[in-house]
Amino acid sequence: MDGEGGKGGNSTLATGNTSDFVKKLYRMLSEKHHSHVVRWAEDGGSFIVFDNAEFTKNVLPQHFKHSNFASFVRQLNKYDFHKVRATDESLIQNGDQAWEFVHPHFRFGDDSNLEGIKRKAPTQRNKKDSEEPPKQDETREIIAKLQARLDQVVSQVANLEDLYHKAVSHMRFMNGSGYMPPQMHPHHPEHEMPMHVSPQIMAHQMSPHGPPPMHPATPLQQAERFLHQQQHSPIPPPPPPPHHPNGYVDINPNGMNNANSPAINPSGFGNTAAQSGVPLHATDPQISTTFRQETRRPMGTRKKSASGAVPHWKRPPKILLVEDDPTCRKIGLKFLEAVGCLPFYACDGLEGIRKFQDLNGPHYDLVLMDIVMPHLDGASACGEIRKGRPDMKDPPVIAMTSNIRTTDINLYFNSGMIDVLPKPFTRDGLLQTLQKWLPHLQTNPTEPSSKSSSAFPAPGSSKASNFPHNNNNSNSPTPNSASAPQPPSSQQQQQQPPQSSASPILKTEYDNNTTTSHPEDVSDDEDDRNGQHTPGSSVGGRVTSSTMSGGGGAVNINNHPHPQHPHPHPHPHHPHHGHHPSGDYTFGEPNGPPSGYGNPGGSAGGPGGAGGVEGEMLNASAGIYTPGLVGLGGPPPGGMTSPRGGVRRQIDAGIHDEYDPRMKRMRYNNAT
Amino acid sequence: MSDEDTFDLPIDAPDYVDVETFEQILEMDDGDPEREFSRGLVFGFFEQANTTFDEMDDSIRKKDLPQLSSLGHFLKGSSATLGLFKVRDICEKIQHLGALKDEKGSGDIKEDEALRTITKLLPKMKEDYTAAEVWLRNFFGSEDSEGEDSNPPEAKPKATQ
Questions:
Q1: Residue A598 lies in a domain
Q2: Which residues, in sequence order, are bridge partners of residue A47?
Q3: Which of A 355-374 lie inside 8 A of B, CB atoms?
Q4: Is the pLDDT of residue A189 over 90?
C-alpha cells in the first residue's frame, strides 16, 4: 500500500490494458454501501467477502452481471488471485464465512498496478494450451528418451534379434524367390525421384498444381509384408520389419543426395535405421535407438483425452502438425490432444522439415501436413521429407486440405503423402485417420472403418477397374522420364515381360508361401489386414495400393507408371503377378479377406460385394491390370499420366468440391 | 460424442455456424464453463479475419489476384474450421476467382471479371462475417460477463490458495 489510499474511492482506474474483470473488482471494492459484505482488508493488501450468500445475491449481479460465486472465484483464480488461508486470528476477526483473496498487485488505493493482473495461461482444466503443447511435450520427450536410454541395453538385444530375424527371413526370401538384390534396383528410381522432382517442386512451391514429384510406394513394402508373414508377427505389429539388409543401401549413391538422409534409410521401414546401425539421423545413433524403442515398446498410456472414444494407444503417438493457419492449427492440436496424441506443430513447410529432421526432436509417428502454406507448401515439404524417408509409412504423411481435386490429390501422393484428410476435419475423421495409419500403436487396434476419412479409398475402389484398363492400354511411353532414372542395373538384371510377370517379388512371395513354408499364409494375411498391418502391409498389389492411398485410388496412380514403362524390367518386382496370385489366394474372391479390411464401409459400397477396396482392386488388377504394382519399382513419374485420368474420373464422380464436412464424409463412404 | 447436446446453442445458431462443426469445437472445452479454448480460438479468428480483410482490400487495390486467391484460401480454412459457412463459401469463391476460375472453380475467366466479382463479393463477405462475429461475441459473452452463463460443475468453489 503506498499511501495513496484516498484515491481509491474515486479513481477512474487507469484505462490502459487493465482487464474488465479487474476493473470491476476494483470498482466493486470502492463502493462503500456493501462494505459489510465485501471490502478491502484492513491493510489494503487483500479483500474479503464476509457474507457469501449476500455477496452472491446482491453484489455480484450488480458488478458482474451474474450471481454465481463459484464463477467469481474461478475468475479470481484465473487472474491469479489466491484465497488466503484462514488463520485463527482471521477467523475471529472476519468470521468463519469469510473468503479472503489476495493478489500482489491488487491493493487498496493503488490502481497503478492493475494492468499487471492478467489472466493466467490456462492450466487448470486444459492442461496444455493448444499452442503450447510442445513445452510439455518436450518434457515428456526428455523423459521418454531417458527411459529409452535406460533400456538401451535391452533394446540392443532386441536389435540384434531383429537383425537376426531379418537376416534369416531375408535369406529365405531371397532363396525362395531367387530374388536378387539387383532386382531391387528398380527402387532406385524412387529414391532418385525426390531429387529430381524436388527442384521442380521447389519452383512451384506455392502452386499445388505444380508438376507432381513422383514418389511411388516402395516395393520394399511388399517385401516387408512378406517378411511379416514369415515372422508371423501378427499383432501389434512392430514396425515393419526392416529391410535394409536387402542391400538397398546401394541406392544411396543413386538417389539420395545429401544431407538429410542417410540414403540408407531408404528402406524406410520404420526402425531400419536403428537396426541397420545406420541411424536415421546419421549423427545420433542413440536417438534412433531410442526411437526405436519407443516404437516397439509402448510406454503405457500416458494420457487420455477427456472426451469419449479415445483409442488405447500403447503410447501417445507423436504427431507433427504442419499448418500455417493459426485457427486450424489450434483446433488441430486440440483434437490431437483429445484423441490421446502428443501434438507438435510447425507453421509452414520449411519449419515442418526442420522440425521433422531435427535430430534432437521427437520421432514423429505421423505427420499431418497442410498443403497451401507460405515459404514451402506441404507437398514439397513432404517430398523433402521423403528424400530421407522414402517409405511412405515412415512416417505416414497425411495431407490436410480442402483442395481435393484429382490433380491436387495426385500431387499429394506423388510427393510421398499417403492419405488425405479433407478439411475442415473433424475429431472423428482425424481419429480414424490416425487409427488407420497407426495401428501398431494401438492396444486394441480397430479396423479401419469405412468411414476412414481418406479420400483415397474411394477413388480406388470405385473405379479401380477403369484404371487398370487405362494402364493396360497405355503402353505409351511414360511422359516422365521416371523410368529412366532407374538404375540400368536393375533393368538389365531382370528382364521380365512387363505385363505378364508382374512383380517377381510378390510372386515369389506367394510361391514361397504356398509351396514352401506357410500354408497359413492366407490367414496371416487376414490377420495382418485386420490387425495392425493393414495400412501398409498388404500383399503385393495391395501393399502398394494401401501404401499409396490406403485405397484403390492411390494405387492406381502409382500403378500407371508401370505400364508405361518402356522397360518392363523395373517391374519385375512387381506384384503384377503377385497381384494375381494374391487375388487368387486371398482377396481374389469377393468374399476374400480383403474385403474386411480396407474400408469395410466403403468397400461395401462395391456392388459386387467384392471385398473391400482391396478386393476390388485386386480383382481389377487381376483382370485388367497387368502391369503390376503400383508403387514398386515402377517408375513412378512416368506412370502418372494415365493414372491421373483414371483417378480424376473417379474422384470427380465421387467427390466434389463441396465443403460441408458431412457431405464429404458421406461421399467418401459412398464412393468407396 | 455424447455430450454434444449440452451446448445449448441459441436457436439461431444455424444461421451463423455449421452447428456440428461448431459443437465439435465447443466440445474441446471439455466442460469448462468459461470456454477458454473455444473462446480463444474464436477471438483469435476475429483478429485473423480482420487482418485478412485488410490484406484483401489491399490486394484489390493492387489487382493482385493470386494474392487474393491465396488469402481466400487461407480464410476459407479457418472459417471452415469454425463452421462459419457463409464466410467460408465466399472465401472459396474468392479463391477460385483469384485463380481466374469462375466461382465454382471450373471455367476460366478474365482478370477484370475476376477483380470485379471479387470486389463485389468482399462487402458481402464482410457483412456475413460481421454478423457472425456479433453472434459469436454474444454467444461467448464479452470478457466482463464471463461466467454469466456458467453452470459450474462443482458445487464448491475451488478457490484455494
A1: yes
A2: A40, A101
A3: 370, 372
A4: no
Q: Is there a domain that residue B51 lies in?
A: yes
A66 part of contact set with chain B, CB < 8 Å? yes
Residue A67, chain B, CB below 8 Å: the answer is no
| Cα(A561)–Cα(A576) distance, integer angstroms | 12
- Asked if residue A212 and residue A93 are part of one domain, the reply reads no
ipTM, two decimals, is 0.82
Place of cell 500482489: A104
For residue B8, give how far its alpha carbon lies from the nearest alpha carbon of chain A (Å): 18
| Residues of chain A contacting B29 with CB distance shorter than 8 Å | 126
Q: Which residue has the cell 503390376?
A: A628
**Domain contains B85:** yes
Residues 426-485 of A with CB under 8 A from B: 426-427
Asked which of A116, A143, A171 is the last residue of a domain, the reply is A116
Q: Is residue A230 part of a domain?
A: yes
pLDDT at res. A27: 86
Contact (CB<8Å) A70/B154:
yes
B50-100 pLDDT tens trace: 999 999 999 999 999 999 999 999 999 899 989 999 999 999 999 999 999
Chain B residue with Cα closest to A125? B32
Helices H, strands E: what count in chain A? 34, 9
Cross-chain Cβ contact B143/A326 below 8 Å: no
Residue A128 belongs to a domain:
no
CATH (domain of B18): 1.20.120.160
Residues composing chain B: 161
pLDDT tens for residues A80-131? 888 887 777 777 777 777 888 888 888 888 777 788 787 776 544 444 444 4
SS (HEC) of A498-542: HHHHCCHHHHHHHHHHHHHCCCCHHHHHHHHHHCCCCCCCCCHHH
> What percent of chain A is modeled with pLDDT above 70?
40
**3 state SS of A90:** helix
- A120 to chain B: closest CA residue: B36
For position A65, which CATH number holds?
1.10.10.10
Of A89-93, A442-446, B75-79, B122-126, least confident by mean pLDDT is A442-446
Both A525 and A615 in a single domain?
A: yes
Written as nine digits, the cell of A317 is 503417438
- Pick from A85, A306, A370: which is nearest to B161 by CB? A85
Which cell goes with A52?
457469501
Q: Within a domain: residue B157?
A: no
Q: Quote the pTM value.
A: 0.41
Examine residue A199 and state whether it is found in any structural domain, yes or no: yes
Which chain B residues touch A331 with a CB distance below 8 Å? Answer: 25, 28, 41, 81
Residue B159 domain flag: no
Task: Write out chain A residues lying below 8 Å of B146, CB-based.
Answer: 21, 71, 75
**Mean pLDDT over each residue of chain B, to the nearest integer:** 83
Q: Which domain holds residue B51?
A: 11-26+35-141
A72–B contact, CB cutoff 8 A: yes
Closest by Cβ to A426, choosing from B24, B29, B143? B24
Domain count across chain B: 1
Cα A355 from Cα A597, distance rounded (Å): 34
- The alpha-carbon gap from A391 to the nearest alpha carbon of chain B, in Å, equals 29
Asked if the Cβ–Cβ distance from A68 to B74 is below 8 Å, we say: no
> With 0-12 CB in 10 A as exposed, 13-18 as middle and 19+ as buried, what is B43?
middle
CA nearest to A565, candidates A214, A179, A211, A180 = A214
Domain housing A80: 7-116
- Contacts A125 to B, Cβ<8 Å: 30-32, 36
Smallest Cα distance from A74 to chain B, Å: 7
> Last residue of some domain: A66, A84, A116?
A116
Give yes or no: residues A221 and A366 share one domain: yes
A304 and chain B: CB distance < 8 Å anywhere?
Answer: no
Are both A108 and A189 inside the same structural domain? no
CA dist A343 and A337 (Å) reads 6
Query: Total domain count for chain A?
Result: 2
